[in-house]
Amino acid sequence: MDVPALEIQLQTLPNQPGVYQYFDKDDTIIYVGKAKNLKKRVSSYFTKTHDSGKTRVLVKKIARIKHIVVETETDALLLENNLIKKHKPRYNVLLKDDKSYPWICIKNERFPRVFSTRRVFKGGGEYYGPYTSGKTVHTLLDLIKGLYPLRTCNYDLAETKIEAGKYKVCLEYHLKNCKGACEGYETEEAYNENIKAIR
Length: 199
What we know:
By secondary structure, this protein is an alpha+beta fold. The chain has helices at about 5-10, 40-45, 55-60, 75-85, 90-95, 135-145, 160-165, 170-175, 190-199, and strands spanning about 20-25, 30-35, 65-70, 105, 115, 125-130. It contains nine helices and six strands, in the order H-E-E-H-H-E-H-H-E-E-E-H-H-H-H. It has a three-stranded antiparallel sheet. A hairpin with a 6-residue loop joins strand 4 and strand 5. The protein is elongated and about 70 Å long. InterPro entries: GIY-YIG_endonuc, GIY-YIG_endonuc_sf, GIY-YIG_UvrC_Cho, UvrABC_protein_C. Keywords: Cytoplasm, DNA damage, DNA excision, DNA repair, Excision nuclease.
């Protein structure tokens, strides 16, 4: 099956949110991106002069464009994220900017902390996201904090350390934001019930 020329592919792109994939002449995915408006975003690659040499090289290598239309920008973000993880396109790595999206992490530890992060580590905990807005994450965390008293300290709350009286409750305990797991005032079971509710 012959692939239509790039000009035709560009003309037929819709003005809708979605994800676009660039393929090289060997039909290998070299880049995945998301857009609020597919036609505008993808066309900009071919109409404007790029400052980055890597972007200029990428544009020269594009032989075919594939797009997927989605309902919202958030759907586009999630799909882009999944496709990048699945295909690991070369230019997504080369052109990676500092813009990473926030996640909410339930840390993999005894008496787990719940916090926002932009870095996802394998085995570091359970990650919820990514979110398109940092504001949404802060609102959710404020809500969680208001409903469930959780610890925010970095202590290693191993059973032996708590039994040995290694820690003392902090201001968060006196403000009733935490139930003092560090001094054994809260059981692991009760704490984990809150974590279960948060999930």
